[in-house]
Amino acid sequence: MRIVPTAESRLGYLFRLSRPRYWHFLGSPVLLALIYGASSASDLTSPAAIAFAVYFLVPGNLFLYGVNDAFDTDTDEHNPKKSEEGKEQSFRDTPGVKAAIVLSGLLAVPLFFLTTSPVALLALGGWAFLTVTYSAPPLRLKSIPFVDSVVNGLYLLPGIAAYITIAGSFPPMSGVVGFWLWTMGYHTFSAIPDIGPDRKAGVRTLASVLGKRKSLVYTGVCWLLAAVVFAQLHLAAALVFLLYPVIDLFIMVEDIDVERAYWWFPTINAVVGIPLMVPGLWLLLS
């Protein structure tokens, strides 16, 4: 029995457009925020917690990647990841698909009524704003080198909003800065396989300006700094995140094809999330 609809069906296409292998990139910061922001296990079953977790698992990803693909057709035509044999869907420029993307964005509106914190509201609004302006003109932040790296902290903003909503306070600054640095490094690393297509399309990203080798150095520095900052939060978190600069160094020393290594990270990131979440869950349930 087929569980996932075929790519030819509209529902199956939208499912694949939301990048299931990357769902945890947006969902994990929210889950971590809910786990460590909760004062008891019952907080995790509150309407606000459930709404944040559900939205940023699927609809939020459809909105995030749908907007990105809608404005990236010029570069995607040169991108082997978006070819018929590629691992990601090419954008279908149809009214139905556009309507689904808009609807997935509007589904975030109820979240604004589940928190009374101005900072949480600002974080949610910032996520929506950066999700659109990252890809859409006239700002198209993804085409401004270094800015494209910095604004990828947008993945963390829903987690900040969720933490404040559940805990009633701002999350530890070392956790926020550490995750932000990690996203900066990961964004540049993930853009390395797109250097060729981006240059053909005339799109300037930090990776396309630096080139492969310097981009790997930049990525490693961001990830190392992230681990150092996480040490201010907890030594165990720092040790977990030290895995990333080690992998980056391994890729450089062994001259591993980044296009191949790129596909390691959805699994690596999912596995890394386990030791980060389990201690918090243990404390809540014990």
Automatic annotation (TrEMBL):
Coiled-coil residue windows: none
Pfam family, one: UbiA
InterPro entries: Prenyltransferase_related, UbiA_prenyltransferase, UbiA_sf
Membrane topology: Multi-pass membrane protein
Primary residence: membrane
Keywords: Membrane, Transmembrane, Transmembrane helix
Subcellular compartments: Cell membrane
Membrane spanning residue stretches: 21-38, 44-64, 96-113, 216-243, 263-285
Nucleotide-binding is among the record's keywords: no
Protein name according to UniProt: Prenyltransferase
